[in-house]
Amino acid sequence: MRIIIDGDSQPCKEEIVALAEKYKIEVIIVISVSHFFDNEKIKNAKIVIVDNIKEETDLKILNTVKKDDIVVTCDSGLAYILTGKGIKAISERGYIWNNESMERTLFFIHTKMKLLRGKKGKKKRSKGIKPYTADDKKRLLKNLEILIKDACKL
User: Fold this and answer.
1) Is residue 154 pLDDT above 60, yes or no?
2) What is the arithmetic mean of pLDDT over 88-104?
């Protein structure tokens, strides 16, 4: 088992790596060139850097992931593909992606995009995403640990 992080969108990489070290699990962080970060603080993870092309990190993750891996991503499209292949995925806010949650998420995105398009070409604005909180981080680490423990039982 490995933990693969979609590094372009994950704010607490260090904490995930620390949790993985506790269970002696390899961590792979996939990032694009434009999201490169100083990896001095993260020594025990493999950093994979890809070109700054749309969906390049997602494609690299899809080509790297194995059946027993856990992927941390906020990309619902990537999570949908992964869960369809039976791979465990968790959002950056700690919500575990599964078939039921994917259906709700995709329906929400579809409805939101319909509302934003509006009638007769009039576009509306969205407020954007909420700030990442300490509760989000706690939920992520708690649920990630649950996924790790479940995978270790198998």
Assistant:
1) no
2) 80
Q: Which tens digits make up the pLDDT trace of 53-83?
A: 888 999 999 999 999 999 999 888 888 889 8
**Residue 117 belongs to a domain:** no
Residue with tokens 């259906």, as numbered in its chain = 103
What CATH number corresponds to the domain at position 143? 3.40.50
pLDDT at residue number 52: 86
Beta bridge partners of 88: 70
Residue 110: inside a domain, yes or no?
no
Instruction: Identify the pLDDT of residue 88.
Output: 93
For residue 46, the enclosing domain spans 2-102+134-153
Task: Classify residue 33 by its DSSP letter.
Answer: G
Q: How many CA atoms lie within 13 A of 135 on its CB side?
A: 2
Collect all residues with Cβ–Cβ distance below 8 Å to 52 and sequence separation of at least 6: 32, 33, 34
CA distances from 32 to 13, 43, 78, 129 (A): 15, 18, 16, 21
